[in-house]
Task: inverse folding
């Protein structure tokens, strides 16, 4: 049985999937690792923990699956974006990795805006946000000069793990697009941005396509994992790019809604010149010479988890949401904005916080729970509105993540988006996308599209209900006013937060 392995290096754990030629997941294994928050707003991990976790997951995968090592034809990766791994001359980390959700770099973001001005959006196609890699580089340069003096190059998280498995250093375009150092349309490191911040070209790794064969498993890694030495390793991609591949978002007209801790609305882009003026992210895709636009809700699934944990900690999610379907669309005039940790799209506001608007004595817990689900979806619909204003039809949406596990929520998405929403039969997220890159790289398919036709299987679909669509259209207009009306109040309240 020929198989490939997709490795998804997430923020809390690494997960490895063993996938056969039919796209069936034959085995999976995972390992958790810690996060470090030394100061408020800081978020770091030890790169060695990723390596040990990946090797442990691979060892379990091979030992428990019954697959012969020679049957594993290839390995590829999905990885958390934006994280900074600084390496010395011997390719050893000079400090802990600074992660995508680290927010210490506000001053560096303002510096990037001041130095580059409008050229930033013209080249990198994204605004300077705390999560991106360049602000982290500048922070280390400013605050830890002795550490930075040792740094000779940088990598992103999955690229470091891949280096440790193969001994080869590369970065794919989809991950490089999240650094603010890439000329996104030109598919090259920006000499202008590097020069502006006195960074040498050698600081950046060689660029490759996500499906490119970049090395083989080292003998010592083979001994540790049970894999065959020399097993082909392919570059892989950023987690959102791989999530899109795993959902089959590989052609125009397809959009993905992903609701995990955060939420993402992502649409395929073939035209490198599409200009959203920084309102949404614009990144290189894991499919060669293609792109995707993406809006982000920071506290999507987290908002519902917070509400449940606060008001029903001992109930299962199934029990907690059992009565939500009995509440009419609109939750009896109750609206929720999911700004628990600030917001990304379309507001990029770290100070704003969540609100319930319109509560009265008739509202029950089920009304509040439904309002939370609707508010999350309204927030994602703000990104959908940006896509449509730019001429994207967004008539068919593939829904993955926690929001795809509840039929009421899937119908809610269809009604709020005004689009057919489709769930997947065997959703595996970015890990499946990584496996698909390996399958394509191994020559199993002539294209990623052909691979998706085999691997990605649709389940139930949900068409918008015209009456609910009309209700939500009116409520969405009101929802969009809440940010403007509460922004100043939240700025005043910030001084009172613990």
Result:
């Amino acid at each position: 049985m020929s198989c490939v392995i997709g490795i998804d290096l997430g923020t809390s754990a690494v997960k490895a999937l063993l996938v056969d030629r039919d796209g069936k997941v034959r085995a999976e294994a995972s390992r958790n690792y810690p996060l470090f928050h030394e100061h408020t707003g800081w978020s770091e991990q030890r790169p060695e923990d990723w390596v040990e976790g990946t090797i442990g997951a691979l060892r379990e995968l091979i030992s428990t699956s019954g697959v012969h090592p020679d049957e594993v034809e290839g390995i590829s990766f999905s990885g958390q974006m934006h994280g900074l791994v600084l390496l010395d001359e011997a390719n050893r980390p000079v400090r802990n990795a600074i992660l995508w959700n680290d927010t210490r770099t506000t001053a560096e973001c303002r510096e990037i805006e001041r130095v580059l001005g409008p050229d930033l959006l013209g080249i990198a196609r994204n605004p300077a946000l705390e999560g991106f890699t360049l602000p982290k580089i500048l922070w280390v340069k400013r605050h830890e000069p002795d550490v930075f003096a040792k740094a000779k190059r940088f990598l992103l998280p999955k690229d470091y793990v891949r280096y440790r498995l193969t001994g080869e250093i590369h970065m794919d375009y989809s991950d490089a697009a999240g650094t603010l150092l890439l000329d996104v349309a030109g598919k090259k490191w920006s000499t202008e941005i590097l020069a502006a911040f006195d960074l040498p070209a050698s600081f950046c790794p060689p660029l490759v396509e996500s499906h490119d064969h970049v090395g083989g498993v080292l003998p010592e890694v083979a001994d540790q994992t049970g894999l065959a030495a020399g097993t082909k390793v392919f570059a892989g991609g950023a987690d959102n790019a791989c999530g899109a591949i795993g959902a089959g978002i590989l052609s125009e007209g397809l959009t993905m809604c992903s609701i995990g801790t955060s939420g993402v609305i992502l649409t395929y882009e073939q035209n490198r010149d599409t200009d959203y003026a920084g309102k949404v992210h614009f990144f290189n895709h894991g499919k060669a010479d293609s792109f995707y636009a993406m809006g982000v809700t920071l506290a999507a699934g987290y908002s519902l988890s917070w509400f449940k944990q606060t008001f029903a900690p001992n109930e299962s999610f199934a029990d907690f949401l059992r009565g939500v379907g009995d509440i009419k669309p609109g939750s009896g005039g109750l609206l929720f904005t999911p700004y628990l940790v600030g917001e990304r799209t379309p507001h990029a506001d770290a100070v704003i916080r969540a609100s319930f608007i319109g509560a009265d004595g008739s509202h029950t817990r089920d009304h509040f729970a439904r309002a939370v689900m609707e508010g999350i979806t309204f927030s994602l619909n703000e990104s959908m509105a940006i896509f449509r204003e730019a001429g994207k039809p967004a008539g068919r949406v593939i829904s993955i993540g926690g929001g795809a596990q509840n039929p009421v929520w899937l119908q809610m998405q269809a009604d709020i988006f005004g689009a057919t929403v489709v769930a997947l039969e065997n959703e595996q997220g970015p890990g499946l996308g990584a496996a698909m890159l390996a399958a394509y790289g191994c020559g199993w398919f002539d294209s990623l599209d052909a691979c998706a036709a085999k691997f990605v299987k649709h389940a139930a679909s949900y068409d918008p209900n015209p009456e609910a669509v009309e209700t939500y259209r009116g409520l969405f207009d009101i929802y969009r006013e809440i940010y403007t009306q509460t922004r100043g109040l939240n700025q005043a309240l910030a001084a009172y937060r613990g």
